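Example record

One chain of 107 residues, shown exactly as stored in the release files.
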Amino acid sequence: MRHTGWRQRRGVTLIELIVAIAVLSIMLAITTLSFANKNKPTVATLSVSAQVSALRSSAVSSGMPRTLTLRDSTGATLVTALPDGRVVSDMPNLDRVAGIVRNEGAR
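Predicted structure tokens for this chain:
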């Protein structure tokens, strides 16, 4: 028995095409946003940078060396700011001349 009202369909309909484009654009937006946030410094990095900057400013304005102990999950680190603006520490990602903490991934 043959159905006269039903034709065999070839290709895709406009609705299917619109749905596929919408799904792909949502996936693209999610991946773009997730990769955009990878290069931003974290809150912990910003607070350490702010602390080191304040320590450095205090040492330069007072003319005396200042020392600060920074604590995190890995332990404690001593940071000393000298009156000439240099910062001395054993922190691996601390820029000793600028006195700021560099993000590990942004090298």
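Notes: Strands lie at 66-72, 75-81, 87-89, 94-95, 100-101.
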